[in-house]
Q: What sequence folds into this?
């Protein structure tokens, strides 16, 4: 049985073995922006998840752009050295492609971590809070810090910081780069009329509000090799009556396409407390990706509440999106890709160390996964069948 989800995709010369992606997820485990042992364990498990691409978490382009004090950064040599080692070690484990998301948290910087963060708590001054920056001096909420409005020198610094981090990411060996322009982070702060009240050329009309994010993307495009995919995570809608709409997102992605961006991830939300976000339902953001794909013709990644193999398969098979990214499903089950492949009747590579748990090597598989279309055959200890790829170095 052939699977659309598990069919290969070539993006800007980079071949992904399949269209299943691990979405970037902050781990709040860095020290001074430097990756730690947790990143090896977490990323290592996901590199063997069956996904064709793993994208590492939002990684700040300058210290003030970190969401929390324990977010990853890529603005100094120690951070670059750690990520270089991480990428090299991951390549020894698996042929899964590895990407990085670069970000600047804008007015959502300097918050508490993990559980507290989800309550939207700003970091208190005595816990090391720093002053966030933003297009306009409008705080996220009542008890949040008022961000500093970026002047011309600040804008130039941030353009340079994104480009410099892109160069570092290339040197570190990442296959793909994604720029975070969603979820209330800095570039999204420029795009949304809720957070951008500037009266200079970067504020006002929709076209003017796109100006600074597009300058950043042009600088990143120059710094990041054309032979490696460059993507952008976009807010499809602010879910707010005075916020950005899907029409704005269409215009933004069309402009990104013109400057050579290779794909867009269509996400949503998180710009301001007054957003009226409908309750999440399975695949709730897929129609955004579908509209961008149809109207702009740029490859798109769908994300958000994609949990079932058949759901992911249908998104690709119907042409709604070119890739699907899953977040929490992979945290819940880092072997999600293996089980999705089995459920869809597709054979993917297992690390040789785990080959005895592969569906046709282990009758227990059928009991553990009754919905699978792959049948256990009691072939314990037989060598892997030729059609099964083996991971490099495994
Ligand atoms: C723990 C956690 C951390 C996240 N960190 C990021 C991030 O660094 N960058 C980003 O763009 N989205 C981030 N997200 C959002 C996810 O990438 C994804 O868009 C979201 O979880 C919806 O997909 P899901 O329903 O498959 O989890 C995070 C989500 C979770 C659960």
A:
């Amino acid at each position: 049985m052939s699977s659309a989800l598990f069919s290969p995709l070539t993006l800007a010369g980079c071949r992904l073995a399949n269209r299943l992606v691990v979405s970037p997820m902050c781990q709040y485990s860095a020290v001074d922006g430097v990756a730690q042992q947790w990143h090896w364990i977490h990323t290592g498990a996901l590199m063997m998840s069956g996904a064709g691409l793993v994208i590492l978490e939002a990684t700040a382009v300058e210290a003030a752009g970190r969401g929390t004090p324990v977010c990853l950064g890529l603005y100094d040599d120690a951070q670059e050295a750690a990520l270089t080692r991480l990428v090299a070690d991951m390549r020894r484990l698996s042929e899964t492609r590895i990407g990085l998301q670069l970000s600047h948290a804008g007015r959502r910087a300097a918050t508490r971590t993990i559980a507290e963060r989800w309550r939207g708590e700003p970091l208190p001054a005595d816990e090391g809070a720093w002053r966030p920056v933003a297009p306009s001096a409008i705080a996220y909420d009542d008890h949040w810090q008022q961000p500093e409005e970026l002047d011309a020198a600040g804008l130039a610094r941030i353009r340079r910081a994104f480009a410099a981090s892109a160069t570092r990411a290339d040197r570190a060996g990442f296959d793909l780069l994604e720029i975070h322009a969603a979820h209330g982070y800095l570039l999204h702060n420029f795009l949304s009329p809720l957070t951008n009240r500037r009266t200079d050329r970067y504020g006002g009309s929709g076209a003017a509000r796109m100006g600074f994010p597009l300058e950043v993307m042009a600088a990143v495009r120059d710094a990041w090799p054309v032979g490696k995919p460059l993507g952008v995570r976009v807010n499809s809608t602010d879910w707010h009556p005075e916020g950005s709409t899907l029409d704005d997102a269409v215009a933004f992605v069309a402009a990104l396409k013109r400057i050579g961006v290779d794909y867009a991830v269509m996400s949503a939300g998180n710009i301001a407390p007054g957003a009226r976000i409908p309750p999440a339902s399975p695949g709730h953001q897929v129609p955004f990706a579908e509209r961008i794909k149809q109207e702009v013709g740029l490859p798109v990644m769908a994300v958000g509440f994609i949990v079932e193999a058949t759901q992911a398969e249908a998104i690709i098979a119907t042409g709604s999106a070119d890739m699907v990214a899953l977040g929490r499903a992979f945290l819940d089950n880092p072997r999600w890709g293996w089980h999705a492949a089995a459920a869809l009747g597709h054979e993917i590579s297992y690390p040789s160390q785990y080959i005895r748990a592969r569906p046709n090597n282990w009758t227990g598989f059928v009991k553990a996964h009754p919905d699978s279309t792959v049948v256990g055959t009691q072939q314990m200890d037989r060598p892997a069948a030729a059609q099964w790829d083996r991971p490099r170095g495994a």
User: Anything to note?
Assistant: The chain has a mean pLDDT of 92. Residues 23-26, 57-58, 101, 180, 183, 233, 267, 303-306, 326-329 surround flavin mononucleotide (CB under 6 Å).
